[in-house]
Amino acid sequence: MKNISSTQQGYKPSNSSPESAGDIQHNQASSQTTNLPRGVGPTDNQKQNRQKPSKNQEHRKERGAIAHRTASSALQAPEPNASIVWKSPGGLSSHPQNESIYGPGESVDNLVESIRIHGFLAQHPVVITQGNTILSGHLRVRAAVELELDSVPCIIFETQHDWQELDFLLSSNIQRVKTNLQRANAVSAMWEVVSKRAKFRMSQGGQGKSNLPGSGQTRDIVGVRLGLSGSSVDKLKDIKNALDSLDDETKVIEVQTALEKSIHRGWKSDPVQQFRSTNESVGSPIKGEKTGSGITVSAWKSWDAQQRKAAVAKALVGSKMKMNKQHNDSVEWAQQTWNPITGCLHGCTYCYARDIINKYAEYDFSPLFHPERLSAPANTTVPADASEDVRFKNVFVCSMSDLFGKWVPQEWINHVLDVVRKQQQWNYLFLTKFPKRLPDQQWPANSIVGATVDRKSRVKNTMKAFAKLKAEQPDVTTWLSLEPLLENISIESLKSFDFIVIGGASPANGLPSWTPPSDWITGLIATAFRDRCQVYLKTNGKYRPVNVPGQIRKDDSKPDPRFFG
User: What is the pLDDT of residues 239-296, one digit of tens each?
Assistant: First the structure.
C-alpha cells in the first residue's frame, strides 16, 4: 500500500463554488478578454436602426432573469464542511445515481499518471456523505484504488435529504464535458431536485426561503442550473421520457445515435416523436413524478367520442378526490377551490396560479384536464359553518386555470357544468378573462359567473358579454373581479353584476405585491352602490366591505360614507 504525497499538507478551503470541484487533478483555467479595436463597432445610425425587443422577447428575458436569480442563489448546493478527513478509497462507494446519469465513466489512465507524479492533491479533496458515499471525485477515487493508496483527503458533506446529495452531485459536474445523453439524464435528475426542494419548502410552511427555490418556471431553473436553454431542457426532457419508455433496443439505439449528433436530431427522431404523439410530452411527467397528471388539449382532440368517454369514465372509477379547503385569505369569498382543469395560456406576468404550479405541482402550466377530480364536489362535505357564512358553501372553480380560455374544449366545460347541476349543495364561482364564451353556456342556478378586468383594455368586451348574458339569462348571478387592479379604470355601469371584488396583487413570479391607490377604488365603489351591486374589497383602506350574494347588507340603498373618508 502507498502513502499520499506531501502535497496533502497545508490545505485551505477555496472560495470557489461546488461546481469547480470536478474530477480533475489540476485546474488550468485561463481568462481571456476580447476587445474590439477602436473604431470597429456599430455606428450611431446602426444603433438607432436596431429594432427594439418585442414584448415577448422582453417577457422571455424577464423570465430568464427571474430563473437565473432563483437558481444562482436559492438553488446553490450548500457548502460542505471544510474539515479534511482521511478515508480509505476502497471504503468509499459511488453515489447510486452517478452511473445512471454519467455512465460507467471514462478511462482514469491520465489521472493515475497525474497522481503518481504529483500525489493526490489535498486542494482537490473528495466530497462524501456521512455514509461514505461519493458526491464529487468518483474518477479520482477509482484512480486511487488502482494505485492502491492507503487514504485520500475527503470533505464530509452533511445533508438531511437525498435531494441535497443529488444537487451537489450535479453541481460538482457542471464543468464536466458531457454527452447529450448525459445532459438528458442530468435534466431528469435536476428536475427531481427542484421538485423535491419545492415540496420541502411547502412542508416547512415557507420557512428557510433563502435556501429554497423561489419564483420562476421549473424548466428555466433547470436550464440555468445546467447551462441549457429552456428549449433544450424541453427537448431533453422529451428524449429522456421516450428512452425510459422504450422496450425495443433498436429504437433506443436509433434515438441515441441521433442524439449524439445534436439534441434537436435526437428530439426529431421517429421514436421520440411517436412517444410525444402518444403520450403528449406537454404536461407529461418526467421520470420520478406521478403519471396520469392530466389530459392535454391536443391528446383530447386526437381521440374520437368513444375514447374521450372511456378516458373520463376510467378516471372516475374509485376516485376519492376532494376539493381544497382554503387556509388563507387569498380567496376569501370562497372557502373551497376545485380544479378539474389546470393550466392557462394567457401568460399574465402576475399569475399566482402559474407560480404555485411551477413550485409545487408535478406537471407544468399547460392546459390539462383532470377527469378524476370531477368527483370532488360529491366527495366533500359542506362545512357546518355554511349555515351562518355563505362563503363556506362557495367553491372557486378552476382557480388554477381559465375554464373559458379559447383553447379549452367545450366538452371539458360541459363536464364541469354537469357536475355543478348535479351537486346542488354548493355554490360555484367561475372567473375568466375570455368572457365572450359565457353567454354560450346554459348556467345552472347555483352558478356565480364572473370575469376579470385588470386594465382598461378588458372593459369593453366584458361589459358587452355580460349585457348579453343578463339579457338572455337574467336570473344568473354575476360578478366582476377587479383584481389585480393595475390601472385607474372607470366603468359607467355595473348593473350587469351582482357583486364586484376589488384588490391588488400578491407577490408572484418575482413581482412585488401591489395595492391600488385609494382614488382608484372609491369611484368603483360609488358606481357599485349606485347600481345596487355588492362590494368585496380585498385590499386598501381601514374599512373593507366583504359582501357576497346570500349575505344581506344592513344598508343596501346608499354607500357608507366611511368608504369616502
Answer: 988 888 777 888 889 999 999 999 999 998 988 887 776 554 333 333 322 334 688 8
Residue 124 in grid coordinates: 482537490
Instruction: Please enumerate in sequence order all residues whose Cβ is within 8 A of that of 50, keeping only pairs 6 or more positions apart, or say none.
Output: 42
* ω into 213 cis (within 30 of 0): no
Residue with cell 478515508: 87
Cell of 310: 372511456
Residue 133: strand, helix, or coil:
strand
Closest-CA residue to 84 (of 151, 146, 20, 162): 151
User: What's the alpha-carbon Rg for the chain, to the nearest Å?
Assistant: 29
**For 61-113, what is each residue's pLDDT tens digit?**
555 554 454 444 444 444 544 688 899 999 999 888 888 888 876 788 888 99
End-to-end CA distance of the chain: 87
| CA distances, 136 to each of 25, 169, 430 (Å) | 12, 6, 52
DSSP states along 248-308: -HHHHHHHHHHHHH-HHHHHHSHHHHHHHHHH-STTPPPTTSPS---EEHHHHHHS-HHHH
CA distance 129 to 155: 8
Nearest to residue 286, comparing CAs of 359, 367, 190, 167? 190
Q: Match 427537448 to its residue by C-alpha cell.
A: 235
Three-class DSSP category at 111:
helix
DSSP string across 328-348 = SSTTTT-SEEE-SEEB-SS--
Burial 314-328 (b: 16+ CB within 10 A, else e): ebeeebebbbbebee
Q: What angle do CA 336, 340, 342 make, to 5 degrees?
A: 100
| Distance from C-alpha of 440 to C-alpha of 281, rounded to nearest angstrom | 32
Are 431 and 481 contacting, i.e. CB atoms less than 8 angstroms apart? yes
d(CA 562, CA 560): 5
pTM: predicted TM-score of the whole model, two decimal places: 0.48
How many CB atoms sit inside 10 A of residue 250's CB? Answer: 8
Kindly tell me the number of DSSP H helices and DSSP E strands found in the chain: 19, 16
Distance, in Å, from the CA atom of 166 to the CA atom of 172, rounded to the nearest integer, reads 10
Closest C-alpha among 129, 213, 149 to residue 7: 149
* Ordered strands of the 324-325 beta sheet: 324-325, 336-338, 394-397, 427-432, 447-452, 477-482, 499-502, 534-537
